[in-house]
Amino acid sequence: MTDTGSPSPSRRSLLGWGGAGLALGAAAAGGAAAMARTEDGTEPAGSAIAFHGPHQAGIATPVQDRLHFAAFDVTTDDRDAFVQLLKDWTAAARRMTAGHTVGEGAYGGLAEAPPDDTGEALGLKPSRLTLTIGFGPSLFEKFDLTDHRPEALADLPKFAGDNLDKNRSGGDLCVQACADDPQVAVHAVRNLARIGFGKVVIRWSQLGFGKTSSTTPEAQTPRNLMGFKDGTRNIAGTEPDRLKKFVWVDEKDGPRWMEGGSYLVARRIRMHIETWDRTSLQEQEDIFGRDKGEGAPVGKAKERDEPFLKAMKPDAHVRLAHPDTNHGATILRRGYSFTDGTDGLGRLDAGLFFLAYQRDVRKGFIPIQRSLAADALNEYIQHVGSALFAIPPGVRDQDDWWGRTLFSEEA
Amino acid sequence: MTDTGSPSPSRRSLLGWGGAGLALGAAAAGGAAAMARTEDGTEPAGSAIAFHGPHQAGIATPVQDRLHFAAFDVTTDDRDAFVQLLKDWTAAARRMTAGHTVGEGAYGGLAEAPPDDTGEALGLKPSRLTLTIGFGPSLFEKFDLTDHRPEALADLPKFAGDNLDKNRSGGDLCVQACADDPQVAVHAVRNLARIGFGKVVIRWSQLGFGKTSSTTPEAQTPRNLMGFKDGTRNIAGTEPDRLKKFVWVDEKDGPRWMEGGSYLVARRIRMHIETWDRTSLQEQEDIFGRDKGEGAPVGKAKERDEPFLKAMKPDAHVRLAHPDTNHGATILRRGYSFTDGTDGLGRLDAGLFFLAYQRDVRKGFIPIQRSLAADALNEYIQHVGSALFAIPPGVRDQDDWWGRTLFSEEA
Ligand code: HEM
Ligand code: HEM
């Protein structure tokens, strides 16, 4: 007889397991506060980002390296069960963003039960994990919420060139997980999905491997898969005035439950990489209205120089996307590059998973994307997925939970 | 009239572009030699790994964080054209692994031509990029090479439980790109595919986001998506005797062109994550024969303690995979976790992209995998992709090229 059936190895293993969780917890407790800041004002890659605050983290937060984005459909019509799920998710998100396991080691302390946490992030740093929840238009059809749907969460029209795949679009809920370590982001989404078993199911998910925007102006601007610096003229996390003006819903906007929140448009944009790669440097630069090496606007020397739109071709991307062309419309971009293997024709299924935050979709993504109908870039890209979410305000403290303002008050 | 048509902005931009390449080159020149080593003897994440040597890098090299693996089919039957491609690939790989762009900035210095390099890795560090080429069994059917196919590159039998998808299996060639930054790995595969246009086409590709083996015993052992430490008992890059014995083809083995090479088995192994997550801790630990927290073998206290196989259940994975159960069969594992979104049923398409290097497939993967027919783990996994490659020896110097020993000599 072997000794595997005896209690001792499992207890020891249980201790090992719980012990690792505790060690992690201790490291995380020091977290954001104790760790030194890096030169560009961002947290070091391993540290924890505060979960509580007036706004959800993951929007104005300096962009982390990796993304796992998941859209969920609600499968229960029991409102109480759904509210309980939001509370359970909040508790788990609070722990995971601090670098803890979900729950305290093995479930109920019993080797006979599945562990609370799936374990693959044990021993990894908090990695600046942020978890950001959103509510899709279809959620408001459920649970008698139609009156609460914000007007600023306006349905997107069909745009020129859209070729949307239903299986990569929509969703009652979303969770955006960003972290410097992909295993930490994947672990978080997986554990939320697991907690939601029987109440929600993942509709689609997207991994992003390279940020394409930095929301810290001091950092080196990352490059997208077309090889251009992306995110140069973005709203920075360090610009409270512009965040207030263009990103955060305020008390005048209504509905009240959205105060401190924002709206998110997600678009899966496939790039025709192979065609792009056969385009001349001159044409590539004309298309964006910026040069490839430095990222400077046409006729200017430096990346951060003010673009002179009239020097650009009329169909240049930057010219058409610029606020001056769109009555001031301005969004916060937070997209990621993706590569999901190859399609049936041996072409890389790669592109930009575009994420834009704004105070009102009607004054942000919609007018800009309409203007981009004339974009020279359209020959090389195609929008293949689309989703829209109301991003509720932040979780204020230990007793608060995701969506409380919508689900527990008469807003 | 705008000034975009005039030569000056494009020349300036060309300089900017070339300049960035030079800066990178300079950083890389210091590379592996100049940069300090880290505590565990591995290169720092940003540095360059030597491309030249008796063996290809990417096998005994300490495992980098990310993977982009691509299998190609050859579409030309012009042998000279194919040999030229191998030379062009070698030149590009030599530059990219050192942190340079492909070519010297813009193609021929002309803004009218597409740039040599697609650009998205500009400004990024070499990131310990390694590029490892392999030749699949089907390549030997082409170009009159049937006589040169090594016996040790034995066709894999159909194993119990295999559910292989042709679109994720096979390939005439492979390139394994490993780097600490996924954008660097993706950039490398994309640029090789681009150089191969008209001669080879990508058959399938796989992104791996988290290493599941470390080949440096001092480093913290990474965890796979089942939450267990993976790679504890592996061959380390620091064990020349075991590498010689189990990994590198030597002069006695034949064929001569393979001396210094190895053989690679790649298996895409899907995990039934949702079922696994509902399994008790005790059962999970029984299945592997190790505990989840520490990774110690059953009945032992520490991860590195010698496993006592008889203490494990007869169908425990470690017991069945251990050399003692398989007449000494030993492989070098170098796999990565993957998550490729969700399947039609809302389940994560996630698992282990298993990579095993060995001196002879008949004495490595095949007997171990046969033994694993009885593995308790099989209830939770399924092999859905399979491929096999002869990994030729390393590129010795500036004049040498990938595959020279096969294509230019009477071996
Ligand atoms: C694959 C698709 C896209 C690519 C490759 C791309 C790339 C770029 C690049 C390289 C820049 C210049 C650098 C910068 O300021 O960030 C830029 C700017 C910008 N893009 Fe895009 N973009 C894409 C899609 C979109 C979409 C769908 C929108 C919104 C509907 C958008 C809105 C903007 C805005 C607002 C700017 C800044 C314009 C300015 O103020 O100068 N982009 N984009
Ligand atoms: C999803 C599939 C698999 C998972 C999750 C998995 C996981 C593990 C784990 C956790 C260990 C113990 C730690 C260690 O020594 O690395 C291990 C050991 C091992 N596995 Fe796997 N494995 C998988 C598939 C395979 C396959 C297909 C093979 C080869 C055919 C294999 C061969 C081995 C070997 C040789 C050992 C070391 C045994 C020893 O010497 O103690 N594994 N595996």
Structure, explained:
- 2 copies of one chain form a homodimer.
- Chain A is an alpha+beta fold.
- In chain A, strands 5, 6, 7, 8, 9 and 10 form a 6-stranded antiparallel β-sheet that branches. In chain A, strands 2-3-1-4 form a 4-stranded antiparallel β-sheet, covered by helices on one side.
- Chain A starts with 6 loop residues before the first helix and ends with a helix.
- Chain A has one domain.
- Chain A has helices at residues 7-34, 79-97, 182-195, 240-246, 273-276, 281-288, 317-321, 365-371, 404-407; strands at 66-74, 130-135, 173-179, 200-208, 210-211, 262-271, 332-333, 336-342, 348-358, 381-391.
- Chain A is globular.
- In chain A, strand 8 and strand 9 form a beta hairpin.
- In chain A, 57% of the residues are buried.
- Mean pLDDT of chain A is 88; it is low at 1-40.
- At the A-B interface, helix 1, strand 1, helix 3, strand 4 and helix 6 of A face helix 1, strand 1, helix 3, strand 4 and helix 6 of B.
- The complex binds protoporphyrin IX containing FE (2 copies).
- One protoporphyrin IX containing FE binds at residues 224, 226, 228-234, 267, 269, 271, 288, 290, 307, 317-318, 321-323, 331, 351-352, 354, 365, 368-369, 372, 381 of chain B.
- One protoporphyrin IX containing FE (HEM) binds at residues 224, 226, 228-234, 267, 269, 271, 288, 290, 307, 317-318, 321-323, 331, 351-352, 354, 365, 368-369, 372, 381 of chain B.
- Chains A, B: Its EC number is 1.11.1.-.
- Chains A, B: It catalyses: heme b + 2 H(+) = protoporphyrin IX + Fe(2+).
- Chains A, B: Its main location: other.
